[in-house]
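ARCHIVE CARD
Drawer: 12
Card no.: 0347
Subject: one protein chain, sequence and derived structure
Cross-reference: see card 0346
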Amino acid sequence: MNKKTVIRLTSFLLLIVTIICVVTGIIKWPGLIPALGLTYRQVPVAIITDIHDWSGLLMTVLVMVHVYQFRGFIRRMARDFFS
């Protein structure tokens, strides 16, 4: 795979994992389940929590890879910003 394909794949995976993390985080929001008229027995909170935690960890790894991929751009922008 060439560099452009790897960057696109990383960006796409980062987008998907971020969406999963955000959606599960909203579902876990304190008081939301009862506000929707649901009970905690009707919603698999333990599974949602696991998905949320793992997607957060994967998102962290993908962000670090993404920053590494764009390290030159980040350096140039920082240099321009601070000069």
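Annotation on reverse: The two ends are 36 Å apart (CA to CA). The first helix runs from residue 3 to 27.
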